[in-house]
Give the backbone structure.
Amino acid sequence: MARIKMVAGNWKMNKTLQEGVALATELKNDVKNPNCAVVIGTPFIHLATVAELLKDSAIKVAAENCADKEKGAYTGEVSAAMVASTGAEYCILGHSERRAYYHEDYAVLAEKVKLALANNLKVIFCIGEVKEEREAGKQNEVVKAQLEGSVFNLTAEEWKNITLAYEPVWAIGTGLTATPEQAQEIHAYIRSLVAEKYDAQVADDTTILYGGSCNEKNAAELFSCPDIDGGLIGGAALVAEKFEAIIAAR
């Protein structure tokens, strides 16, 4: 299995349903034959509509989260089975905002990953350190613990449905970006951890995205690094022209 290059957008809590449909329509019309996989992560209420709109296009759809329970009396939650039923193919899990604001720990995330995979969803799993951890030189320690805590319990076969996204938390929405050298160094380290856990071939086949103020201006330089396979894009994914420029850079 050759490593997949990918550009994924994460809309976060932005766009009304109507605005989201308009953006998805624009992307559908403009992105015909991309030279990489293209995924957009939309809010839950958009999923069914956008997945239907894009079902015959070059663009795949992701949920931004799913519940850590299969079903039941969990008011307001959305299960992995519900996500899959919309036609979405991916689920973004472990995002730093979910970890920080909603206190999702390793065990909760491990459960979410398990349920997503059980419902035939591919997972984009986010890892990364905060500013204080980077300044203390603990970034390697942090990403290793995040992997071991939530996804290194998977079999090599299950791992085929995992895409990793390294997001230096200090660079998200701050305008700061890891230098290509910093990003490449930790991406290579992450790949070495996968090789250690599984084997060199599995590691070589693993897609690792960079997420952290990646935009149309710096994407090409970041994507030129040998261990950076694409990007998980936040703000720039909300503007078709910018997102398309990042796709073209891949």
Q: What stands out?
A: Residues 180-197 form the longest helix (18 residues). The beta strands are 6-10, 37-42, 59-63, 90-93, 122-127, 162-166, 208-210, 230-233. The two ends are 19 Å apart (CA to CA).
